[in-house]
Amino acid sequence: MAEIKASMAGNVWKVLVNEGDEVKAGEDVIILESMKMEIPIAAEENGIVKKIHIQEGDFVNDSDVLVETE
């Protein structure tokens, strides 16, 4: 199981995937907003989204787990 983590602190602006979706390495899965900038968070490897730990509007810290893939 792989974890997709936040690369910085910010608000979850958009969740681009749903549980059960197939994702490819490099595909954006979450968009964070910090200091009025949009920061895309991409999958690091191919997989299936097993669990989404956050929802739009949540605040996350650096290294928080956002999504688990398998």
UniProtKB/TrEMBL annotation:
GO terms for molecular function: acetyl-CoA carboxylase activity. PROSITE patterns: BIOTINYL_LIPOYL (PS50968). Residues 1-70 form the Lipoyl-binding domain. It comes from the Bacteria. InterPro entries: Biotin_Carboxyl_Carrier/Decarb, Biotin_lipoyl, Single_hybrid_motif. Its EC number is 6.4.1.2. It is an enzyme of class 6 (ligase). Keywords: Biotin, Ligase. Transmembrane segments: none annotated. Coiled coil: none annotated. This is Acetyl-CoA carboxylase.
